[in-house]
User: Fold these one by one.
Assistant:
Number 1:
Amino acid sequence: MTMKTKTVILLELWVEARTRFSNQLENISENDLQKKLGDSPNSLGFLIRHVAEVELLFAKNVFGDSDVKVSAKTIIAQKDTGEWTNLVALKNYAAEAYEKLSAIVAKQTDEDWEATITTKEFGTKTKAEAFGRIVSHTAYHAGQMVLINKYGTI
């Protein structure tokens, strides 16, 4: 029996954790995208876009995929602008983010996970620690999405 590499194990962990986000996309209607919870500033559509943007930023800035092009509109605006209402476009963007991040993560060697990277958002961390940030970021917002979709209103 061959041992799995760190990369295979970490990729499996992320893919499984991300289902908390991706499985929701199957049951969201275009009308749901405008839902917000109480006085919360962010809609369901905004959060879908935000998760995808951050995954693309990780592919580019943490893992070095220079082919990734991302305009982090949710981060730049720092608030929900109300424009995230096209379900097909949001699903496609989330799928692109998944493909880009999983492809660059799959290229990492065991040694790469111990290399350090520095970002203004979270300082200096190993790639493994930084990867923990994207896993928890997506899961965090997936939890918000569940609550917004269940209890939120337009």
Note: Residues 6-151 form a domain with the Four Helix Bundle (Hemerythrin (Met), subunit A) fold (CATH 1.20.120.450).
Number 2:
Amino acid sequence: MYFLPIDAQDFIFQWYERYEMAEFDKFIYLWMSFNAWLSKHTKTKNKTDREMIEEFKKTDQANYIELIKQDSELNNNVEWLCENGVLNYRNETIIKPKNIDDFNGIVECIYAIRCNLFHGSYKRDVPIDRKTVAKGTEILAGIYGPILKRERQQIARLKLAQWEASKRL
């Protein structure tokens, strides 16, 4: 089977844009973009999702927490997560952030949602599963969306600079 080469940046943006299409699919599409972004921006080579998540939890925590606090909807979704948590179906424990400042706990919940969804533990017809995935989607979008926005702006500036340089030649 032959695969056409796809620019990594286009791949990241395509998955991000698809996350808006459907309910559980939103999380899956968003995660695919985020996961590709993680693989591009984490230092360890040949890393697992867990390793990338551990590295992500160590970066810019204060900025992400401030972002959560400034956005009332994002704040409400994180508070819901703090109250309800996420059932980790693998070991049947509940993962909860301690509070809105517990970025590690928030990321762990998002990762647990990913694992539950990707490994078939969530069901579309179970209301709490649907609500948990919806909350997780909103939280991940609220954290990751601004990251991608900054990258798009940087790429646009770079393309403009390249275009202006080519005009001078």
Note: Residues 46-164 form one domain.
